[in-house]
TrEMBL record:
This is Bifunctional (P)ppGpp synthetase/guanosine-3',5'-bis(Diphosphate) 3'-pyrophosphohydrolase. In eubacteria ppGpp (guanosine 3'-diphosphate 5'-diphosphate) is a mediator of the stringent response that coordinates a variety of cellular activities in response to changes in nutritional abundance. Gene3D superfamilies: 3.10.20.30, 3.30.70.260, Beta Polymerase, domain 2, Hypothetical protein af1432. Residues 401-462 form the TGS domain. Residues 58-158 form the HD domain. Belongs to the relA/spoT family. Pathway: Purine metabolism.
Length: 733
């Protein structure tokens, strides 16, 4: 580089630094400026020999990230310093200890968190990628600013991605849409979320992006004219009330227009609400709410509102801290227009999220973000859930719309849309969730799978004896509830495996077979299982019974077969035999809510394999075809033929449960029904589905439908029932 070029670059760097201080949202003290200057000097020195792909000095990147943190997100001096230093430890000779000595623990902790995230391997493999996201989210608890600066870093990378290879662009853009945009949404950084989504679309579907961008530009003039016309109608009325206000039009983002076109299967011209009108008014804190409703009444005096589209986030703000009044009205020329009414304070919170929330936070009100981080932490630390499931579930909770429900005491709780009473129970406390026996919504008993609506009052009925069963996973939608249920079910399975281990030891002793590691290894291979826990669990529930163990003993005692088997078994060792997990052998597809076993064919378009998330489609001539949920044809089938879609999922047939009907006859006496139900309930892994007793002239007959894992458990239960005093006959229908 020539000297003149170097001088120009240095001038630019100094200029950028001045601008960084000038645009900071927070008021910077002298102390703050000193901290930022020191961080700036260290960053310039550390990156002096580095250049970006575009050829410019690397230092421009940390400065740009710091500018986003300072103005668009509005964080404090500590965060601005950490943003300037975010790549120093990773890319240069400076160590974390150097940073700690120079800038103190907080900056060092944030820089450390950011370095950990950057060091995650980037890979196409979804499960590894998901594991990385999970690790990244774990840094949330160290300091939420880590994730916020990471989002700023990602935003600047997305803004300057033009000089990268196409495959790199696509990968980074997909990752952004997959996790960073939803995270920005959840933290309340709506402007950044929108920009990340639009940039994500620019690189994943460039043609679509450019086409919509072009159309938005073409319609801008018409849109401005429309907003001016809309404003003219209400201006006089607003002025009469002496209100300080501004009215702006806000075009919908390219990404959200694209989503609407896709979901509603319409063209650009058919998307009717391509923009929103925002009324921002000045107010002191005491009159904020009153003025919002005053403006609402003025707007609805002039334009007819759509009553189903009123959103009151002033009385109950979103858990991101967002407050506003949204109404959709029939505007001029018969067009629906979304009108957002916000005070200047509300507008700042909507634009800056986290930072403005803290600036305005008074007293000790509960903060949605902190509460969310704590709940997320619980789900994260529960390592039982595999990473892909976790991230999928987590993403659901990031973007989901909220509903507001009441506790029996009248407290307001926010839950994701689609939540059930079971989600509500777990949102109050894990113990309440695990002990849930039933729920009342608005005073009526409802199934645990029913969907809650805004305004419902929910009461959870608990019982010490209640415990989760596998159906609960179909009822719960939130990450927290599902993680806790899975963890509890695993615990239950491990307890059964413990019993199974003791039973197996006894049964092997009876067959004169030593109970040692070699035998267990042989048994795991003989029954085509994966881990020793699988073996013990299946003995515990009776899937591996005496007959099957005799078959194993017979195969063992045949010396010749045994010799060849031991030769073959050299390669046949199971690597993960001691894994602390009960695996599922996905070998059976079940359909519908009742999980029926039906005939089916696997679709050729997506070739599902056991364990995939799938659904059944009832074809005209070929019966049920099974497709993956992310099959290219899935959206078209689900939207056009919803009535022919049938739920489907893979199950482990050895862990499947079956219904059986037991008939009982005997002499009627007081307490007999109680004895029968107690006997069934006390039997391991047996649930009563249906019960019917009839007594006539001292003789009683009864029918009980039970759910059991297998035949041997049923036989055991029948034997126990026969021993009850007064029972004459017990048969299976």
């Amino acid at each position: 580089m020539t000297e003149a070029a170097i001088e120009k670059e240095n001038k630019d760097i100094a200029q950028q630094y001045k601008e960084l201080l000038r645009i900071s949202y927070q008021t910077l003290t002298d102390e703050d400026k000193k901290l930022i200057r020191q961080a700036f000097d260290v960053a310039v020195d550390a990156h002096k020999d580095q250049r970006r792909k575009s050829g410019e000095a690397y230092i421009f990147h940390p400065i740009a990230v710091a500018k986003i943190v300072a103005s668009e997100i509005g964080l404090d001096a500590t965060s601005i310093a950490a943003a300037l230093l975010h790549d120093v430890v990773e890319d240069t000779s400076y160590t974390l200890d150097d940073i700690r000595k120079m800038f103190g623990d907080t900056v060092a902790r944030i820089v450390d968190g950011l370095t950990k995230i950057s060091n995650l391997e980037h890979d196409k493999d979804v499960s590894l990628q998901a594991e990385n996201f999970r690790k990244m989210l774990l840094t949330l608890n160290d300091d939420v600013r880590v994730i916020i600066i990471k989002i700023a870093d990602r935003l600047h990378n997305m803004q300057t991605m033009d000089s990268m290879r196409t495959d790199k662009q696509e990968k980074i853009a997909s990752e952004t849409l997959y996790i960073y945009a939803p995270l920005a949404h959840r933290i309340g950084l709506y402007n950044i979320k929108t920009e990340l989504e639009d940039l994500g679309l620019k690189y994943t579907e460039p043609d679509v992006y450019n086409e919509i961008l072009q159309k938005i530009r073409e319609s801008k003039e018409e849109q401005d004219k429309y907003i001016a016309e809309f404003t003219r109608v209400i201006e006089d009325s607003l002025d009469k009330e002496n209100l300080q206000y501004t009215i702006k039009g806000r075009p919908k983002s390219i990404y959200s227009i694209r989503r609407k076109m896709k979901n509603q299967n319409v063209t650009f011209d058919e998307v009717y609400d391509k923009f929103a009108v925002r009324i921002i008014y000045g107010s002191d804190p005491a009159n904020e709410k009153f003025l919002a409703w005053k403006i609402y009444s003025i707007v609805t005096d002039h334009f007819r509102p759509n009553p189903t589209r009123l959103r009151d986030w002033i009385s109950s703000p979103k858990s991101t801290g967002y407050e506003a009044l949204h109404i959709t009205v029939m505007g001029p020329k018969g067009r629906w227009v979304e009108v957002q009414i916000r005070s200047e304070r509300m507008n700042e919170i909507a634009e800056k999220g986290y930072a403005a929330h803290y600036k305005y936070k008074q007293g000790n009100q509960e903060d949605g973000l902190e509460e969310w981080v704590n709940k997320l932490q619980e789900a994260l630390e529960n390592s039982e859930v595999n990473a892909v499931d976790f991230v999928e579930q987590f993403k659901l909770n990031l973007y989901s719309k909220e509903i507001f429900v009441f506790t029996p005491q009248g407290e307001l709780k926010s839950l994701p849309k689609g939540a059930t009473p079971l989600d509500f129970a777990f949102s109050i406390h894990t113990e309440i969730g695990l002990k849930t026996r039933g729920a009342r919504v608005n005073g009526k008993l409802v199934p645990l799978s029913s969907t809650l609506k805004t305004g419902d009052q929910v009461e959870i009925i608990t019982s010490e004896k209640a415990k989760p069963n596998s159906n609960w996973l179909d009822y719960a939608t939130t990450a927290r509830a599902r993680a806790k249920i899975k963890s509890s079910l695993k615990e239950e399975k491990k307890n059964i495996a413990e019993e199974g281990k003791a039973i197996l030891s006894r049964k092997l002793r009876a067959q004169k077979i030593p109970f040692n590691e070699k035998t267990i290894n042989e048994l795991v291979i003989f029954f085509k299982l994966k881990t020793s826990l699988d073996l013990f669990y299946r003995v515990g529930v009776g899937t591996i019974d005496n007959q099957k163990l005799k078959d194993y003993a017979a195969s063992r005692s045949n010396a010749l077969v045994s010799f060849f088997k031991s030769k073959i078994r050299k390669q046949d060792t199971v690597e993960d035999i001691d894994r602390d997990e009960i695996t599922a052998k996905y070998d059976q597809l079940v359909f519908g809510r009742d999980e029926e076993v039906l005939d089916y064919k696997l679709a050729n378009c997506c070739n599902p394999i056991p364990g995939d998330s799938v659904f059944g489609f009832i074809t005209v001539s070929e019966g049920i075809k099974v497709h993956k949920k992310d099959c290219p044809n899935a959206i078209q089938l689900q939207s056009n033929f919803a009535y022919r879609i049938i739920q489907a999922k893979w199950k482990d047939s050895t862990q499947e449960e079956f219904k059986a009907v037991i008939k009982l006859t005997g002499i009627d006496n007081i307490g007999l029904v109680n004895d029968v139900t107690r006997e069934i309930s006390n039997n391991m892994n047996v649930n009563i589905k249906n019960i019917n007793f009839d007594s006539q002239d001292g003789i009683f007959t009864g029918k009980v439908t039970v759910v059991v894992k297998n035949n041997s458990l049923l036989k055991k239960l029948i034997e126990h029932l026969k021993k009850i005093n007064g029972i004459d006959k017990v048969t299976r229908e």
